[in-house]
Amino acid sequence: MASPPTGEELAVMIEDKGNEIRQLKFAKTSKDDLKPHIDELLALKAKFQSTTGAPYVAPGQEKKVEPVPAATSAAPVDPNKKSKKQLQREKKEAEKAIAKAKAKEERERKQAEAAASGGGSALESTPEGQEWRYGDLPMVQSSEMTGKTFCPVGDLTSAKAGEEIWLRARVHTSRSIKKGVFLVLRQALYTVQATVFVGGNVGRPMVQYAEDVSKESVIDVRGTLVVTPSPVSGCTQKEVELKIEEIHVVSAADTFMPVIVADAMRPDRTPEEEEKQEKEGKAPTVAADTRLDYRWIDLRTPANQAIFKIQSAVCQYFRANLASKGFVEIHSPKLLAGASEGGSEVFTTNYFGMEACLAQSPQLYKQMAAACGGFGRVMEVGPVFRAEKSRTHRHLCEFTGLDFEMVIKEHYFEVLEVFSDLFINIFDELNRNCKEELEAVRAQHPFEDLRYARPTLRLTFQEGIQLLIDAGYDADPLGDLSTEHEKKLGDLVADKYGTDFFMMDKYPLDVRPFYTMPCPSNPKHSNSFDIFIRGEEIVSGAQRIHDLEFLKERAREHDIPLDSITSYLDAFKHGAEPHGGGGIGLERVVMLFLGLKNIRKTSMFPRDPKRCAP
User: Fold this and answer.
1) Residues annotated catalytic, as ranges
2) Of residues 328, 368, 275, 266, the one with CA closest to residue 579
3) Are residues 581 and 403 in contact, defined by beta-carbon separation less than 8 angstroms?
4) How far is CA 572 from CA 265, 514, 547, 567, 576, in A?
5) 247 & 265 share domain
6) Would 207 be classed as within a structural domain?
7) 486, 536 in Cβ contact below 8 A?
8) Is residue 93 part of a domain?
9) Containing structural domain, residue 278
10) If 0-12 CB within 10 Å is exposed, 13-18 middle and 19+ buried, where does residue 240 land?
11) Where does 163-287 have alpha helices with state H?
12) Sorting pLDDT into bands at 50, 70 and 90, what band is 360?
């Protein structure tokens, strides 16, 4: 004789039967045909309780009181980072979630008992044959295509009033009243209010189902779009709302959220403002490390959605502008046999028994393709790795480089002119085509529009140094600029010339790499340049030395052993055209264009000396 099922086996049987019942409801199965399945479900639950000594609890509900584990391999969330008010609020949210789950379980039990007894009292408020209007959808496994058309939330305007609409969105907030529930549905940058009220084809159980949907769950809803008598506060689509006639959960979110999206959307505050908000018992902002530990939730905020759409646009405009000028996109290797540019701050790895490293830059390969390989003009968008233990607001160990290299005919100013036109085009296109994204960022992270001149302001290094000296700063005419000096110079240029974007060339030769071409009129200067936004460097570039013997001479002057850069030198043995170029840090450009304070806001999953996950 077979042994009776264990509690674990019964739980699986209950879950399977529950899924079967949900699918039958969705298929509009009649009550009479549904009753045997409900009877079987109740019998299984009774058997579970007699076997285990405890009532059956749906999967996930038993976890509501447990602490949420950190993501695998992620830096653990330090509770000391959270204020007492924030911890109290999270505790209250968890208690509400537990109470809500228990109430839902009790309603389901009563409904099942009523259906089994034939009384139907708990189901009478659902109009006959309308149960299919709500319930969890079967798992989407690509079994069929129905041709159903979903409307983007951002397209919901008064022009569509009266139309039947299908939406797929996340539940942003939920508010219940006596006979209905108000939902705010969110999709990327946009939110719209939706309502479910008892009446017509909508019964009380459908309203209860809508009430029980947890925040951040993905749902499908069908309803009629109507114009509201007054603007809907708190939603981007202020003039309309959706009267829901059908609602289904596609993917349920856990009722306890480690990051509450509504909190993560709050505008930036100063430390003083944050302290005042805490004293007044108002909701806190979310700590930066907590955001990054649960980045997949943090990315859902409209500001973050906008930031990365803007970042994507920068790459598109970079490619389009340079392609129109005859540049060819290349893809250089990121595993190298030696340090990029002869540097030492690299990530090393074992390459089949040989020592290798991750590329600090595509420098050599850009030069080989453009000046030695005959392509003339090349560009690349790719990862760059820097093993620098700099945990600052503007440094990352991995970032995206936007690089180009080009042959020049007479003067390296040809490179500067390409950079000038490129950036002006990118800024113009962002301002023209990303208005909604810019406003979404501004709503959470206020910033002033970037000011830039036509043509781009160009200063010599000596002119920049003189501005600093005149302002009372001790600046070395033959040394490099410190971060403080760069920031101050940005302020001085903005005040004097009315621009936040400028170029500075003719840097001292001694502070540039060995392959930089010296200035013909002053051997202490170089044919090199940096480009700045709001007082921070975003581009470093130069004319490169293309003559092999001169390149060797400059390497010796920098005490670089020639045998350590053999692969670099070999590329210039067979004739190389005069050339120059530079590299742009994508995350830094986006950060500074948007006036953000930390580069981690513009890196989707940032890597710095303290973080390598998620």
Assistant:
1) 386, 388, 394-395, 537, 540, 588
2) 368
3) yes
4) 53, 15, 7, 10, 6
5) no
6) yes
7) yes
8) yes
9) 261-288
10) buried
11) 204-212, 261-264, 271-279
12) very high
pLDDT, tens digit, for every residue of 322-357?
Answer: 999 999 999 999 999 865 554 458 999 999 999 999
- 398 forms beta bridges with 385
71 contact partners, CB below 8 Å, separation of at least 6 = 293, 294, 613, 614
Regarding whether 397 and 308 lie in a shared domain, the answer is: yes
Give the helix ranges, DSSP H, for 135-282. 204-212, 261-264, 271-279
Instruction: Please indicate, yes or no, whether residues 243 and 272 belong to a single structural domain of this protein.
Output: no
**Residue 529: C-alpha distances to residues 132, 341, 342, 514, 580 (Å):** 67, 18, 20, 15, 11
Q: DSSP per residue over 105-116, as a string?
A: HHHHHHHHHHHH
534's torsion region: left (phi>0), alpha (psi -120 to 50) or beta? left
> Do 325 and 241 lie in a common domain?
no
Q: Are residues 173 and 93 in the same domain?
A: no
- For residue 115, give every residue at least 6 positions away whose Cβ sits within 8 Å of its Cβ, in sequence order, or none: 31, 34, 35, 38, 122, 123
* Token duo for residue 360: 């600090």
| Selection from 312, 232, 297, 239 nearest residue 265 by Cα | 297
pLDDT at 19: 63
What's the domain count of the chain?
4
Query: 225 - beta bridge partners?
Result: 242
Cα–Cα distances in angstroms (integers) from residue 7 to residues 13, 66, 109, 550, in the given order: 10, 21, 19, 80
Q: What's the pLDDT score for residue 190?
A: 98
pLDDT in tens, 240-260: 999 999 999 999 999 899 999
Q: Which of 442, 480, 447, 446 is nearest to 461 (CA)?
A: 480
Considering the domain architecture, whether residues 27 and 167 belong to the same structural domain is answered as no
Q: CA-CA distances (angstroms) from residue 108 to 144, 340, 480?
A: 30, 64, 71
Is 432 in a helix, a strand, or coil? helix
Domain match, 188 and 215 both: yes
DSSP class of residue 41 equals H
Identity at 100, one-letter amino acid code? K
Last residue of a domain, one of 94, 117, 140: 117
CA atoms within 13 A on the CB side of 136: 14
* H-helix or E-strand spanning residue 103: helix 84-117
Tell me the HSE value of 44 on the side-chain side, using a 13 A CA sphere: 23
Q: What angle do CA 244, 247, 251 make, to 5 degrees?
A: 140
